[in-house]
Structure formats: C-alpha cells, structure tokens
Amino acid sequence: MANPRTNFIARLDWVTIILFLVMVGFGWMNVFASSRNEGTGGSLFDFSQRYSKQFYYILTALVIAIFTLTIDGKVWSFFSFPIYIVTLLILPITIIIGKEINGARAWIFIGSFSIQPAEFTKFATALALAKILSAYNFVVQKPRNLMTIGAVLGIPMILILAQKDTGTALVFLVFVLVLFREGMSWVVLFVGGLAILLFVLTMLVPIPVLLAVISVIALGLTWLYQRNFKFFYIGFLSLGILFGLASLASTYLGQDWSLSRMFFLASFVAFLIWLTIILRKRHNPLLLILLTWFGAILFIFSVDFVFHEVLQEHQQSRINNILGLESDPLGRGYNLNQSKIAIGSGGFFGKGFMQGTQTSLNFVPEQSTDFIFCTVGEEWGFMGSLMVLGMFSGLILRLIFLAERQRSAFSRIYGYGVASILFFHFAINIGMTIGIVPVIGIPLPFFSSGGSSLWAFTLMLFIFLRLDTDRYQIVS
Amino acid sequence: MLNSNPNRKYVVGGIVLAVTLVYMLRLFYIQVIDKSYQLSSKNNSQLRVVEYPGRGMIFDRFGKPMVYNEAVFDLLVLPQQTKAFDTMDLCRILSVDLMEFRESMKKAREYSRYRQSAVVRQITPEQKAALNEKLFQFPGFSFQIRTQRKYPQSVAPHVLGYVGEVNQTDINADTYYQGGDYIGKSGLESEYEPYLRGRKGISYQLVDVHHRLQGNFENGRFDTIAQPGRKLTITIDAGLQEYGEKLLAHKKGSIVAIEPSTGEILAMVSSPGYDPNELVGRIRGKNFERLMNDSLMPLFNRATMSRYSPGSIFKIVQALIALQEGVIDEFYSVDCNKGIIGCHNHPNAHGLREGIMYSCNPYFYNVYRRIILQGKSTSQFQDSQIGLKTWYQMVCSFGLGQVLQTDLPGIKPGLIPDVAYYNKWYGANRWAFSTIFSNSIGQGEVETVPIQIANLAAIIANRGIYYVPHFVKSIEGVDSIPEKFRVPHHTAIDTKYFDVVADGMQMVVNQQGGTGSRAQVPGVIVCGKTGTVQNSGGKEDHSGFFAFAPKDRPRIAIVAYVESSGAGGVYAAPIASLMIEKYLNGTITQTDKELAILEYKQF
Ligand SMILES: [Zn+2]
Description:
- Chain A is mainly alpha-helical.
- Helices cover 71% and strands 3% of the residues of chain A.
- Chain B folds into 2 domains: 47-133 and 141-234, Penicillin-binding protein 2a (Domain 2) (Alpha-Beta Complex); 238-287 and 299-599, DD-peptidase/beta-lactamase superfamily (Beta-lactamase).
- At the A-B interface, α9, α16, α18 and α19 of A face α1, α2 and β1 of B.
C-alpha cells in the first residue's frame, strides 16, 4: 500500500469520496423518477428535461471536485476573506438584477442558465469563520471577538433575508455548533437550543400540554438529582392542588379562565413557594432546575402573548406560513400532507424504482427539489430512508472525525463548518418532509435537483478533502 | 487558537446521532407502523375544488334591487387530459380570440398539468349551452359557475363602484384571495367588500391517476361550505337617483341629496357618468379604457372630488359665525357700496335676512371684516391672526376643510385656509384682513366639494347639527350601521341663530327680488341659496345652488352644480327644485321647468 505521507491519492479520504459518489448517483435516480413525467418524453440528452439537466449538473460537479483537489489548500486559507467578501457583494447585486421565483429574489439568470449565489455564501462564510477562529490566541468568549463573529455570520444572513430566502438565511445559525466546538460556553448552546425548541413547540403544541410536559421533565430531573421521589411527589401534589385552587377561583369569580392561564397562575404561586423553600435549604442544583422550569414557562407565555396580542394578523400568518401551520395560496400545508402520504405509503421495502405513484403524479411543485426525500421514501421504503439517513449521518460523523485529526486549527474549524452545514440541511430538509420540522425550503445536499446547491456543496466538501490531504503540514 | 475543547466532538457527534435516531423512529412509525398513509395513497390524489358564492345583492332604501347577479361560466381545463381538439371551433362557439386562447392554454399548462385552470372567463349561458352539446369532443374541459353583476336601472355608477379580478396587490394584502377571484374595486363594492363577497367554499376531492373523481377527501373533514355574500341595503332612492341623472344628462355637474335627520344620502349624481353594465364581463377592459381616455372624465365622481369655490353659498356660514361671535345681530344693515367690492343692482339690505336674500357682497365683506378684526390687538396683523384662528375653528365645525368620514372611498377634503396657510404663503405678519377679504363671499382660497355643501344644507335644516352623510342603511346579519354614522355632530353655532338664516334662505327663493326664485316648488317652502362660482380661465361661471325643504321639519337637503352654465339661479336652482318636488311629492308638476332643463345640452 502506498505511503500516505508521499502519495496524494493515498492521502485522500476515500470513505468520504465514495459516500459522495453514492449519494449523488442515488440522488440522480430519484430526480429521474420524480421528474420523468414532467415533460412529454425525450431522451437523456434532451436538455429541456429536469433529469437530463441534472445529469449535466452532476458531470460539472465532478469536474469541480477534481479541479478543487488540485488546488493547494493554502489558497483557501490565504484568500478566505476575499472570497467571503466577493460572495457577499454578489448578494445585493442579486437582489437588484435577480428574478423573483416563489417570492424570493435569489436567482441570477444568464440566458436560460440560473445560479443562486447564496448557496456559495455558505462555504465562503465557513472559510472566513475558520480564518478568524484559527488566529493565534483567539478566545471565543471575549466580547470583542463575539462581536466579530456575530458580524461575519450576521451580514450574510441579513443580505439573504433581504432576498426573502428565509431558509438559506437560517442555515447560518448552525455555526453555533462550530463555535461550541471551539470553546463557546455551554450555556449559549443550551439556552439557544432550548429557546428555539420552545418557540417552535409553542406554535405547534397546545400550550397546556406543553406546560404539563415541561413540568414533568423538571420534576423528573429533581428525581435524577435527589435519587428519591420526595420532591417528585411534593412537586406533583403542590402543582395539582394549586391548579385545583385556580380552577375553583375561576369558577367562583365568574371568570372563564383558559386552562393555560390557570396553569400559569398555579405555576407562579408554586414557583414562589418552592423558591423560598429551596433558598432556605440551599439546594443549589434544585434552584437551577426551578429557575429553568419557570424561565421556560415565562418564555412560552411571552411568545404566545406576543404572537396573539402584539403581532398583526398578517404578521401572524407569515409566521404560521413559515412554520407550515397555515395553507398559503400555493398550499404548503397541503404539500406537507402529500409529502407524508408519499413517504408513509412506501412501507418497509418501498414500491420500487419508478413505481411511485404519489411522487410522480401528485401536485407538489418542489417534488424534485426540496421534497426529493418523498421519492426516496415512497419508492425505496423504510430501507431506502434508513440508507439515506445512514449515509448522511455517516458522512457528517466522518467529517467530524477528519476535522479532529487536523493539526491546523484552520482546517479543523473549516471541517466543522462543512459538517455543520450538511447537518443543518439534512436535519431541516428531511425533518420537514416527515412533518417534525416546519416547512423551510432548503435543498437536501447531493439529492435535490438544481445546479447551484450541488456545485456549492461539492466545492465545499472537496476543499475540505484537499485540506485534509495537507494534514501533515500546517496550514495557517 | 489552541485546540482547547477536544471532548466536545462527542457532544456534536451526539447531536447528529440523536437527530438521526429520532428521524429513524419517526420514519419507522409513518412507513411501517401507521398504515393510514398507505390507505390514503392508494393511487389516489386530491383535487381542490372551489365553489364561488354569489356576491351580495344591493338594494335601494325602499328595497328595490339595484345590483344583482347573473350566472356566467368559466371554462376550465385540465392540461393532462386534453387531446388534440378543434381549437378554431371552440373559439368560434365562445367567440374568443384564437391567439388569446392559445396564450391562456399555454399559461394553464405552465401552471400545472395536474391542476385545473380557467382559460376562458365569463361565458354566457347561451354559449355554454352551445358548447355543452359537443363537450365530449373536448376532453379535459369543464365548466365552473361564476356570477357577474347586473344593474337593472343602470344608475349610480360612481356610488356602486365596480367589481374586477384581483391583482397581485390584493392577493398580497389578504390571503383570502387567489388569482381569478373577484373583488370590489371602487365605490360601495370596495367599501363593503368583506360583507358582499361572502366566503368561498373549498372541497378536496379524491381523484385517481386518470383524474376521475373518487369522492371527498377524508369525508370532507377539511372542506368548507360556500357562504353567499350578504345583502346590502343602501340609502339611495333609486327613483330619485334615476331622475337626477336624467336632469343632468348632457351637462357637466353633480347633485347630492341628503335626508337631514339621519345623514342618509338619497341621491348622488355625477355627470357625465356611464352605464355600470358597461364595466361587467368581457367588455369591461375595452370600455374601461375608453372611459379612462374620455376628455369629459365620466369615471370621475364630481360630487365628492370636484373642488369648487363655494361662492355666495359661503355667505350663510359667514352670517352664522358673525352671529355666534356677537359681532352682528339680525338687524345689522349695510349700504351696498360697490366701491369696496363689486355687487349687482339691488335695494340696500336692511337686516341680515335681506343681506342673504340680495346676496349683497359689501354686506358680507363687512360681516367677515367684523369676524376677523375684533380689535383684540392693536396691530392689524395680530388682530387678523386672532380673528382668523377663531373663524377657522368655527368653519371646520361645519365639516368643511376635511374629509367627511363617509363610506365612499376617495372623498376630497377641500380647503379652509388657516393662519399657518397664510403665514406660509405671505410670511408671518405680512398679511391682514385686506389680503384675505375675498373669503367673505366664498371666493379667495376657500374650496369645498359638493357633498360638503349638501351636508351644509343639512346642518341648516337641522339648525346646527349633522350626521356624517353615508350610504349604508343596513347589512344583512349586522345589527346596526357603524356608530360613526349614528352620532350627531354639533357645529360651534348655537341653535338659536339658525332661524334667522333659514328665514333669509326662504326669502332667497320665495320673496320678490330673491336670487333663487327658480327653486320654488308649488306648495312647499323651500329655503335655498345661490352660489355662482367664478370659473378660472375666463369661461362661463359654474352654477351652484343649495337648499333644504320644507322649511319646518325638513326632509331633504340638496346641492346642485352645473359647470360653466352661468349664475347659480339659472340652471342649478331649477334642478334642485325638480329634485325636491320629485322626492317630496313623487310627481313633477313643473313640466315647463323640467323641459327647459332637459333641453339644455352642453355636449
Ligand atoms: Zn349689494
């Protein structure tokens, strides 16, 4: 076997490359299956067909991959800021000269050929972030540094939001994972994650149910900490009694309080009582649980209040639209229903290649782009879904592994950036098609049809693979 | 930076694994455990079928229908099912342009091969019947019933407004609308759109791969039933409206008639107008363009948008303010001195009643002078400012210089100049009574729109209060009309001062030497006042007249304007007279007067 220290081919990470090739190939089969009925026949070389277009996109992507591998890794570190700035400059230009598609002004047309610049902003931002974080003695926690990081991530987000491409803008939030790996406090990850989770849950789940679940979790945590059921029982009992009192008060005062309001009153009183007890007994970890619990309840109520009392009707419906709770004129909620039916009807083994009836005949407009996973689910069943999930999580974990073996901080951080971006797309896109994440229109990497996203992901991935081949030298 | 937190790779990796695990469980659930998805997919899909409700009808104050609906049809196509067909034949039956039809077909295909879209709109029942016989030759095509507006009397186009297809702005503003829906574009159709439109019904039908209907999706759990639009009763008297439009035919002008005790608008005529039936259906686009380009501006509602100087009508307001301020009393007399301001030949006015009757310009010059210069400051500039400030507030209490909050969109406010206005124009302390005296006789800077003058007539009829003029009388399913139309507005003038003015207005019409004798109505005491509006550009003056009748317990307040027709008494007064007689008595006895008006044609 060739020596990796001297042989470039041997230094390449073939696990990643094979995963990449299999995903792109399998992706194309699904694009073919889902778009074969769109036109009126035509051969593979007929450029008007979506699947034939995609075929050329893939060929181009392979050229990009090979070309990227030949570029010295130092180039990316050296030019990371210029690349970042150039991709940023293209965004406002896109808003001006771009054409509006599905409400977003995110596309530039050159003849019949279209490109979505925001796709390339992601890897450029990963480069810039890696460059900044890899500076000697850079400490993430410092307020000044946090501001720099905020700007590097915030500017592309704002520009992409200005294109009304909310989905792509949200991708930049995932860099929190990179920051976390590089030393950002646990609290930010925890509180941030909790806030996003609670926000989405407040919109999706009936509030009384949500409050009850949170309380049970909090009480469960006290049990974990105390290893006995004392607080667990006391907690349940006191909350139950106070809730009963609140409903009695509601009846006697002739007020028609809602369930969640009674619950809130009960929690508030319980909070005050427990706070005094815990403070007196100095159970600090219990205090933490109590504060988190009540903080979460307050947060849920303020989200609910702001949503129903402060926001105007059209703002509410915009949020509901983003969360997929309200069917818009194009019928997003309807799409979601169709999407679940398509996936669910696949069963264990699927209907077979090109045998899907839902994905080839139904009316989901983005069935070969954002909803490509429907075709996987319908034609390849649970086994196919499992394979795609396995390939994605395998690829992401492999990238984390590769990142960790870098000696250069720049390569490591960039590697984490690539892994995080792929993770976000994977989690949001598939989560959306199976109805556990709001409908946010971002593509499934290597699967969704479309040139820009495929090229951008390929470029992003192969830059890292090239950096990885340089792992025996220090890239700074 | 230093590689400081190597153990955190496990946390990041853990998150990835956790998400993957959750998704696996979820997929296992929906793909393997829950069989309902497989059932609902059994080679079926869904079709969204929209049922359009009839738009609410509009009735006049006596319940006579003014707007109703006629059935028309849209031709729908499902591109996936079409086979080669005789396009020429189809276009001939429906009398549509071949090129246009091909364009719509192309759009429909681009929209979706598996969803229906409308390719030809507003097909008459006859055309539909003709095509129905050979519909089997046109697979993929079907009809959908829609309604279109019909106006039996062809009156009040500016008030009723028109209905048209929604544009992108409408769709963005309200998620209820989708392409192809109709919306009230102007007038009452626009103002009461939420009531008139009703609610679309939507049902989700299951279809097989060949698009054959297989019944309701999930037993209609997601379906909504169409609710018809609500009936709207308006305050217009269709007969009076029709008569007013007849009187103003071939003239440029407007009429507004109000019931003083309620503020209900009985008639609103703007001439030239158009037949509202012209802006319906497929002929709408062509007709709209023609009306837009017409130099006589038939789409323009003169009754609410034409800004005129009020002319002598404004003397009534000046008299009331002077009485309230105590700067004159009813016996105040002035010699007609044409040296200060021009006037016509008439005996000197003894007392306010005669001042109004003769419409004497020097008289009201002095009245206004007393209002403005009350000697509250030694500087005439300061004094004029103080006086104008009081005057401005009082004039505004008549609803002038502001948009009347009625239920017709697009009303103009007119203009009442205040201190700031003149300061901006001339500079502070650079103007005084001598600069602004033309206001005294309603020339100068003062501008009003006809509906405000009709409201002014209502104010005098009511001796000092008014209700915001409005068109809504009742809406089906709504308990009462909006609060803002039910509360009385009080002017800044005490009730006791109005009788003198009403006396003066009675004399204008009924006394020898009054300027408005042509406004007399047999057996009715009409109170009125002429207003001759100087027309800029040296053309013939506009003729204006406002009145209310009967003097006691008035039932109608009215204004009439005829543009470029000379003094107010000549054409505007008889038109007001005929309208009053028509409304109060139901018949016209003054046939020679009517004939003279009908024969007068400006175009
Ligand atoms: Zn005179």
